[in-house]
Task: structure prediction
Amino acid sequence: MWCIPKLNDEFKERMEDLLDLYAETYDPKRPVICLDEKSKQLLADTRTPLPSAPGKTAVQDYEYKRNGTQNIFVATEPKGGKRYAKVTKRRKKEDYAEFIVDLLKQYPDADCIRIVQDNLNTHTEKSLIHRFGVRKARSIMKTIEFHPTPKHASWLNMAEIEIGVLDRQCLNQRIPTAEEMKKKVRAWTKRRNKKKCTITWKFTQEKAEKVFPELYAET
Result:
């Protein structure tokens, strides 16, 4: 199901802010990091799968057992070729706040971290205050800037691209336990970071003017 955005001044302002960020020359002191999360079911086999053999493919029974869900936070630095992912039981305010603090530890030498994220109600300074108190939250906010996507336009967040890769390369299988999921996500993250996989963003200001001509019509 598609969400149709309201093409207004706020949409234009937020879109152009992100496109300007993405067009900047890479600066490790001021990295642009895209953040998002996804929910994933834990699924266990009810019958032992049959392994592959010469001339035979592996066989997995269609039945499975649901073991609950886990949340996966994903932060990716498209031009730096880095990503950081964390599996959590929930995605509440405190989980988000703790992920932000963990993310900052990955960039000890950064002067400012620009974080692109959607408009989920936990994606605010209030979550940091809720978890750590006003004093520490204000200290954290000195190091980060939030750059929200336009409402109903989360496709402008490159974290969705990284999560798509995570889905195809890591999560496209039955994972029965939280510990197993954490292990697989850590291994996937390590491989991607070792290869320094980057994301090439092709939606530019010029293309935006063609896709959304009503936002740029002369008055």
Summary: Residues 6 and 151 are 8 Å apart (CA to CA). Residues 9-42+78-199 form one domain. The two ends are 33 Å apart (CA to CA). The first strand starts at residue 32 and ends at 45.
